[in-house]
Amino acid sequence: MTVETVRQWQGLYQGVVVSAVDESRAGLLQVRVPEVLGEDVCVWAAPLTPLAGPDCGMYVVPPAGAGVWVQFLDGDPDRPVWVGFWRGGPGDVPSAAQSADPGTPQIVLATPSQSALVISDQRGPAGGIRLQLDGKNGPFIHISKMSIEISCGGPEGASIKLAGNQVIINGGALMVQ
User: Fold this and answer.
1) Which of 29, 100, 157, 163 could potentially form a cystine with 104 if both were Cys, beta carbons 3.0 to 4.6 Å apart?
2) Strand partners for 143
3) What's the pLDDT tens digit per position in 16-63?
4) Domains of the chain, earliest start first
5) InterPro entries per the record (predicted)?
6) Which of 93, 90, 146, 99 is nearest to 118 (CA)?
């Protein structure tokens, strides 16, 4: 590579995930970066992650079609690194993020099947920590300043809620004080 070519690819470029099937399980993504490589060329990009080490760290596997930001080490298009994600629009925001008022500090991690971990500073019973499986009607654990609730999900699922000095089972079918 010439010095002129290397300098050309400094900065961030929009890429799209083609495949996340990484047999090495190192977090590599096969991506397309049209602005740099053209429409038809795909490359394997290494992850930049906020935490990594022996048997610890953060591991993210986005779906095919997800938007990723890509940089090239020393501007070299043969050394791609994916450094984060870009949203194509409001539809790319997890539905679990809609549970808090706009501007409320929160952290939401969600999968395409709507399993989610929501940590929210929303005031009242909606705030706290919620671990949800398979969307809003699935099983969940919710911890707030007011209560702790475990539910199998749906209107027919069993639930236990601890609130104050009460234990409420199945929506009030049994209450213990």
Assistant:
1) 100
2) 129, 148
3) 999 999 999 999 999 999 999 999 999 999 999 999 999 999 999 999
4) 3-86 (2.40.50.230), 94-176 (no CATH)
5) Gp5/Vgr_OB (IPR006531), Vgr_OB-fold_dom_sf (IPR037026)
6) 99
